[in-house]
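Bench notes, afternoon.
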Amino acid sequence: MQVRTVSVKDMLPFQRPREKFLVAGPACMAVEELLAILLRTGLKGQSAIDLAKTIIDSFPDGVYGLNRMTVGNLIKIKGIGRDKAVTICAAIELGRRLGELKIKSTYEDFSQPYVIAQYVMERLRHETEEHVWAAMLTSRNTLIQMETISKGGLAASLVEQRAVFRKAIACNAAAIILIHNHPSGDSRPSDEDIKLTKLFVSAGQFMGIPVLDHIVIGDGEFTSLSEIGKLN
């Protein structure tokens, strides 16, 4: 016997995602219901909630997989056009930015490893390749900005060293903290990570812009080379 799909229109008012959001509040909403609100509509024979469940089920790690999604990847899912994909990606980006703003407004000293780790965790923990960033700090260790240095891992080349310090000079940074992620999820630094960090520390001493730390980001964990005594 074929099971009839219940459309959002067929639901009782308190069951519909938008009405439930207004009456019960966002904390009472299931993830697929929140996603359905962003989708607004489903497709023929499938409600917005059903489509939301289809999207979540398409990821091996469930809704967690949305963190890695791009517009290009989302539109490959049946029922997701460009507008829906942009809406989902924009909502995820907004959530990340609000989290970053909260951390930046809460902490002044960005030389603290756990502060840097909190600030970048949700952007880097889901990446499938290594990204190298640099936090540019003032003389009081407040964050000026984050700079993307490269993808594919830290390199010992003079070109990459120059790129880091050129950006530091451009924004009048007094100090730098290097950051990169390990797609494996394990934040323990490799011997190569330690070796390359020491080269950057030496370059910073020469340039008069010290490298205060190198933070390795894993999946929900981080390692500070300064804290484990591997910076110099």
